[in-house]
Amino acid sequence: MSLRVDNLKVWYRTLRGEVRALDGVSFTIADGELVGLAGESGCGKSTLGKSLIRLDGRMRHVDGSVELDGKELPIGDSERMNGFRFKEVSIIPQYAMSAMNPTRKIGLLVAELLASRGERPAAVRDELLRRLALVGLEPEVLDRYPIELSGGMKQRMVMVISTLLNPSLLIADEVTSALDVSTQKAVAETLVELRDRNVVKSTIFITHDLSLVYQIADSIIVMYAGRLAERAPTDALVGSPRHPYTRMLLAALPEVGVRFADQRLEGIAGSPPSLLNPPAGCRFRDRCPLAVARCAEQPPFVEVAPDHYVACWKAS
Amino acid sequence: MLRLEGVTKRYRVGTFGSRELVAVRDVSLEVRPGEVVALIGQSGSGKSTIGRMVLRLTSVSGGTISFDGTDVAGLKGARLRAYYGHVQGVFQDPFSSYNPVFKADRTLELVRETYFPRLGERPWRDKVEASLAAVRLDPGQVLGKYPHQLSGGQLQRLLVARALLLDIRLLVADEIISMLDASTRIDVLNLLGDLKARGLGILFITHDLSLGNYLSDTAVILHRGEVVETGPAEQVFARPVHPYTRSLLASVPQLHHKWERTGHGSWEPAGEGA
After folding, report:
1. pTM (2 decimals)?
2. Cα distance from A154 to chain B (closest Cα, Å)?
């Protein structure tokens, strides 16, 4: 068992009260598993990714625990987390294009980063060159400034840096959303390759794009309004989704070949509830065509088929 | 209606403009009433530049853009205003299309000041309500609100409503749904489909092939500023001829159809000068 998240609650402090962005989330990720974390903006997927590595000033660890490779991750304690960051848990941030210090040549930047984590840059040098080759970058990029690289090259460089110390858990937060389809494919395939070569043990791939995560993930978690809606092996989630939200989300995706004139797809009416004072019970019930009186009570996240978990009264 | 003939855009780049970058080279296309033309290409392909030239936000370096037979490059004053009465654009980021210090419906008021200064309060309000209804927005939910109080989907639909206040015949939709969530994305696409049925011509600019295919009649595939393939959308998507179109289609992630793994070494050469 590589990662175990148990009833994790992380809220944001705002002037009007606390926003329950992550409100009681439990799941596990196995060694070598690549998990896609999908959901719409504001569902808490990025908050979940961030809480596993660094809580920013507005975020508060309210409840729950995280365990990585049998050790408790002190996610509420930024100082103690320093022992885990980069070596055990690493992230490819959402804006990888602007993640590198523009005033440093990339080679120096990497060396400084390694030194700050108590590693000798010279010891890692050969591995660094191998990793650059893996993503199709020339060693010369180390003598360049970030501004001299194209967007796709910067994205790859950040991937190399993030995974240089072979972290057990890699969090990839919307790493493909700013890229063209062909670069997107290459980035996604590189994530699979990093896992296949045991560079990283397990990966959480955060995205809003279900058709992209379907290409590479072993299993998919769908979040809605701060909670997990459904989790299943990739083919089961896409082939036989059980949660009404997952079904409607999949039905709203136009595919190549589907045309407006022949088949009109439908979106999901309404919008997610405010997480400032979220309603009790199932948070999807206002938009759900199957909602019944019982949905006023929070449905448990239960296993309905092997490895297939759903939080819906109608699905279990 | 809208016709582009041999349109070219050159930029001066480098120190003292010493080098020339051709962003769009010799592009010809036509948009007829009730037709959706998808302009598809990756970043740097020149697709947005074409949209901006049609909207007169960027000058044309060569070739002509004409609307109903009139070259739009020379339009000034009242005639330019009349052109914008027929041709409007909506862009990718709804949040940066509004001034955050003003209420969102000010964008509608500005249209009134320019185009309907003498219209009474009552008929104006009917007009606003009719165009909000056309984009399926509830006036009570959007009027009088600041941009940050509305969702991306609502803001984007409000921008389309703004365009509909005018008697527009052509809409330049530049990546208008790529920032929206999947569940609201399709609503905006369906809205464009309904407008098309009412005779609106749409220049639909996108990098997403599946979205381009859902709506469009004609597909124009751009690569480095040049048209590499064009034809009826169904045909281009079902039987792409140009190798670039094929490779582009093969990279699109689709549900129920997994990529053929190409392994590493599949990185596209980096964009020139990016």
Report:
1. 0.85
2. 11
3-state SS class at B31: strand
Task: Tell whether the torsion through CA atoms of B250, A245, A300 and A37 is positive or negative.
Answer: positive
Give CA–CA dist B12/B268, Å, rounded. 26
Q: Is the pLDDT assigned to residue B265 strictly greater than 60?
A: no
Scored b (16 or more CB within 10 A) or e, A20-56 reads bbbbbbebebeeebbbbbbbbebbbbbbbbbbbbebe
Write the ipTM: 0.78
Which long-range contacts (C-beta less than 8 Å, at least 24 apart) are formed by A116-125? A117/A85, A117/A86, A117/A87, A117/A165, A119/A165, A124/A164, A124/A165
Mean pLDDT of A159-182: 89
Query: Cβ(A130)–Cβ(A139) under 8 Å?
Result: no
Instruction: Please tell me which residue of chain B has the smallest CA distance to A148.
Output: B274
Q: Look at B181 and A185 and tell me if their CB atoms are within 8 Å.
A: no
Q: Is the sign of the CA dihedral B181, B187, B188, B193 positive or negative? A: positive
Burial state string for A87-120 with b = 16 or more CB within 10 A and e = fewer than 16: bbbbbbbbebbebbeeeebbbebbbebbeeeebe
DSSP letter for A273, please.
Answer: P
Instruction: Quickly state the pLDDT bin for B270 (edges 50, 70, 90).
Output: very low
Q: Which two tokens stand for residue A88?
A: 């055990």
pLDDT one-digit tens code per residue, A258-287: 888 888 888 888 778 888 889 999 999 999
Report the amino acid identity of residue A275: L
Sign of torsion over alpha carbons B202, B208, B212, B215: negative
Q: What is the distance of C-alpha A151 from the center of its chain?
A: 21
Q: Do A193 and B264 touch (CB under 8 A)?
A: yes
How many whole angstroms separate alpha carbon A140 and alpha carbon A132? 10
H or E segment to which residue A158 belongs:
helix A151-162
**A5-9, A149-153, B23-27: least confident range:** A149-153
Residue of A136, A186, A208 lying closest to B181 (CB–CB)? A208
Q: Which residues, including other chains, have CB under 8 Å from residue A108's CB and lie 6 or more apart?
A: none
A210, A249 in Cβ contact below 8 A?
Answer: yes
The pLDDT confidence band at residue B21, using thresholds 50, 70 and 90, is confident
Closest-CA residue of A relative to B149 is A274
Say if residues A151 and B218 touch (Cβ distance below 8 Å): no
Triad A222, A171, A301: Cα angle to 5°: 30
Q: B262, A214: Cβ pair inside 8 Å?
A: no
Mutate to test the interface with A, among B185, B252, B267, B272 (most CBs of A within 10 A): B267
C-alpha distances in Å from residue A257, one per residue of A35, A253, B232, B237: 28, 12, 13, 7
Helix (H/G/I), strand (E/B), else coil: A207: strand
Q: Is the dihedral of CA A105, A109, A110, A111 positive or negative?
A: positive
B257/chain A closest Cα distance in angstroms? 8
CB B133 within 8 A of CB B167: no
